[in-house]
Specification:
The chain has about 400 residues and is mostly beta strands. The protein has 4 helices and 27 strands.
């Protein structure tokens, strides 16, 4: 009984094989192939839709039997014809776009190439889309109709097009709010940019003076959901409560944008916008005093230079009635201060005598927003009587 079953199976296979030899329509030997996916980048190179088909010995493909179609989600038909092609042996027939709104739209920005023989019984039909638009994203297919002595049939192959967009430079430079910044102020920065498609990211950086590599301050953690026919993703990223310190003075804050199509070697070199140089108002710190020559004990008749400087913004070196440096002198054993005339913190002491021994104090002053600040530092100098000529010769 088992042997009888095997004989039946062999007979059915033989019958099917004979059918394929005699009736090509049943076997459908022709093939149609395309890429399964294409990626098109807006603003860059054109995109080629390439369809390759093969025909068997007794098959024919006639003018108009080759077409590229686009999926139509709004109409009653699933796919709408964009263009029809003619095989190489179709004399007097030409490739043409469909006389529809969609066909006309693609005609204005596409090229149809002649079908070419690309191998033994193999042909290729290509249309090139020169201008990519966001709404071009979707499903396409190549359809080929085959004719045989016993009938006709069609085969098709689908390709999915994804449209991509590079991230773009932010729309405007970020501005700190408030724009007048005191040390300790919580400042907000905001940046809006098209992060491209697929959606990218926005990152924040701080460039400090004399520092080659910026500090990474954070990045936008939310990315938009992919939406059909949307190529512009305008996102806003904000630093909401950045506390400013004197270490931020003269810094530049940067908002940079990147996605898969725009990636510099260093993230902070991606398309970006910078703030103007940030100035942070802060009170003066303790002055730094330098003595030239670098000592505190001198002989009578010596010449000494005292210099004073202090960090603060506004700088005390502005030298006006609010921001300035002041030297005072208090002789040893006395409590009264004497104001000394200096050149913006530079004090020259000539022909020093013993009476010039005492405390030299530099006070730095600055002010902003109706407030004033001061900070002092001092150095003690001792002036000793010089040796006489006779004393210098005593052994």
């Amino acid at each position: 009984m088992a042997e009888y079953g095997k004989i039946i199976v062999r007979q059915r296979i033989l019958t099917l094989f004979i059918c394929c030899l005699l009736v090509r329509n049943y076997c459908k030997a022709g093939t149609v192939t395309t890429k399964s996916t294409l990626t098109a980048r807006i603003g860059f190179h054109p995109t080629d839709f390439e369809c390759t088909y093969t025909v068997d010995a007794d098959e024919n493909v006639h003018a108009g039997d080759i077409s590229w179609q686009i999926e139509n989600t709004t109409g009653s038909e699933n796919f709408e014809t964009l263009a029809e092609f003619s095989p190489p042996d179709a004399h007097g027939k030409h490739n043409q776009f469909a006389s529809t709104a969609t066909g006309s739209d693609f005609k204005s920005r596409s090229v149809l190439y002649d079908v070419v023989n690309s191998g033994v019984n193999t042909f290729t039909a290509v249309f090139r889309l020169n201008e990519i638009r966001c709404e071009d994203e979707g499903n396409y297919r190549c359809v080929v109709g085959f004719s045989t002595s016993s009938g006709s049939y069609t085969k098709s192959s689908n390709v999915s097009l994804m449209v991509t967009v590079p991230a773009e430079k932010p729309y405007r430079a970020p501005v700190p709010l408030p724009d007048v910044i005191e040390e300790g102020t919580k400042v907000q920065f905001s940046c809006t940019a098209n992060v491209g498609k697929p959606p990218g990211n926005i990152k924040w950086w701080r460039f400090k003076p004399n520092k080659a590599v910026p500090d990474h301050l954070g990045e936008l953690s939310t990315t938009p959901t992919m939406v059909e026919d949307v190529c512009v993703y305008n996102l806003t990223s904000s630093i909401l409560a950045y506390t400013m310190s004197r270490n931020d003075d003269q810094s530049v804050f940067r908002c940079s944008v990147s996605n898969d199509l725009v990636k510099a070697d260093k993230d902070y070199d991606n398309p970006h916008e910078d703030t103007k140089t940030i100035r942070v108002l802060y009170k003066v710190g303790s002055p730094i005093i330098e003595v030239t020559p670098n000592k505190t004990e001198f002989t009578a008749g010596s010449f000494v230079i005292l210099s004073c400087n202090a960090n603060g913004y506004p700088s005390p070196l502005i030298d006006n009635h609010i921001n300035y440096l002041l030297w005072t002198f208090t002789p040893h054993g006395k409590s009264d201060d004497v104001i000394l005339i200096s050149n913006n913190g530079l004090l020259s002491l000539e022909n020093l005598q013993h009476k010039d021994s005492g405390r030299y104090t530099c006070t730095a002053h600055n002010g902003f927003n109706g407030k004033t600040f001061s900070s002092s530092n001092h150095v003690d100098l001792s002036i000793h009587p010089g040796k006489t000529e006779n004393q210098s010769n005593v052994c």
